[in-house]
């Protein structure tokens, strides 16, 4: 799978992410040119429900992450996911929000919805220069607007 967000210059392959032993969602590795990752226990992008894709805002000594500009997305911006079968799901951004990590809206992000949705997640807020951690999460909510078939 592949993710393209033209308005912020994101063009990345998508790795599959699962769960860590403590049942938290895995994130992509912190390494040079680390791609974004699709949470495999969420719907395939374009299917009914909230598909979840995670990426880093920064990569430690490697510089900017794939979602460095994620918080700059605006309502109506286009997000495309090329799926494994060759089809493309096109989404339109509904909202970009930032939440303190301790108040992460798990139900709004992972809970059932009545349409094909997309959730893009990264870290946000001002980076702590001592711990190198971010206090917040940026979440982009988007809805499916069209999908091409694999034979198109």
Describe the structure concisely for a colleague:
With 152 residues, this protein is mainly β. Helix content is 3%, strand content 41%. It has one domain: Sortase, Chain: A (Beta Barrel), CATH 2.40.260.10.
Task: Give a written overview of the molecule.
- The chain is mainly β.
- It has one domain (2-148): Sortase (Sortase, Chain: A).
- It has one helix and eight strands; from the N terminus they run E-E-E-E-E-E-H-E-E.
- It has an eight-stranded mixed beta barrel.
- Strand 5 and strand 6 form a beta hairpin.
- The model has no long low-confidence stretch (mean pLDDT 93).
- Do you know the CATH architecture? Beta Barrel
Give the biggest beta sheet. 8 strands, mixed, barrel
Q: Compute the number of helices.
A: 1
Instruction: Give the total of beta strands.
Output: 8
Secondary-structure-based class equals mainly beta
H and E string:
EEEEEEHEE
Q: So what's the overall shape?
A: globular
Q: What's the name of the CATH homologous superfamily?
A: Sortase
Number of domains: 1
CATH class: Mainly Beta
How far the N terminus sits from the C terminus, by CA atoms, comes to 17 Å
Please bin the fraction of helical residues.
under 10%
Organism: Streptantibioticus ferralitis
Protein name: Class F sortase
Keywords: Hydrolase
InterPro entries: Sortase, Sortase_dom-sf, Sortase_F
